[in-house]
């Protein structure tokens, strides 16, 4: 990938995760990379083109990591912790999940990007639901795997937003605790006094 294009995407992603897509300007991007504004338009003719590329790039990285979590032979508790850690790492960088930030500005996205974003969230819910369903015997709830997945993702995304306002990680930690409460302790852990 072209170095300028890679750098533009890196800076744009960080900017969107901190202040949103609407606040992002091609002029500022150009200044930060050290190129002309017209060069930004060369790579991304419209902001919608940049938004699409950002969503796709984020999606691809996210699902690569999720595939690794799903393929692990670790207990479900550890895989849930790894999943929550994906969100926690974003918060540690004083960012919001790109998907959440794009969702908060859903009205400014074009129809194609709205559909893409909805598809990514659906796939994320389905990924977590499948992980849970594959480990159904480890769950302590009668909720369906999809219901748990929807609650978890909504809770984690919301926790990132509110924790940012409150300048702590209390809500993200509460989400992690709640998710872990849905998983039975392995017998070796459950019997230890």
Low-confidence stretches: none
Task: Tell me which CATH architecture of the domain at 54-185 applies here.
Answer: Orthogonal Bundle
Number of strands: 0
Q: Tell me the distance between the termini.
A: 55 Å
As a percent range, the share of helical residues equals over 70%
What is the fold named in CATH at topology level of the domain at 54-185?
Tetracycline Repressor, domain 2
- Tell the overall outline: elongated
What's the name of the CATH homologous superfamily of the domain at 54-185? Tetracycline Repressor, domain 2
Task: Return the string of H and E elements.
Answer: HHHHHHHHHH
Structural category: mainly alpha
Structure description:
There is one protein chain. This protein has 193 residues and is an all-alpha fold. The protein has a domain at 54-185: Tetracycline Repressor, domain 2. Helices cover 74% and strands 0% of the residues. It contains ten helices and no strands. Helix 1 (3-19) packs across helix 2, helix 2 crosses helix 3 and helix 7 (111-134) packs across helix 8 (145-166). The model has no long low-confidence stretch (mean pLDDT 94).
Name a few traits of the molecule:
10 helices, 74% helix, 0% strand, 193 residues, mainly alpha, Tetracycline Repressor, domain 2
Entry summary:
The chain is an all-alpha fold and about 190 residues long. It has helices at about 5-20, 25-35, 35-45, 45-70, 75-90, 100-105, 110-135, 145-165, 170-180, 185-190.
Write the layout of secondary structure elements.
Elements: H1 3-19, H2 26-33, H3 37-43, H4 47-71, H5 76-92, H6 98-104, H7 111-134, H8 145-166, H9 170-181, H10 187-190
Helix pairs in contact: 1-2, 2-3, 4-5, 4-7, 5-8, 5-9, 7-8, 8-9
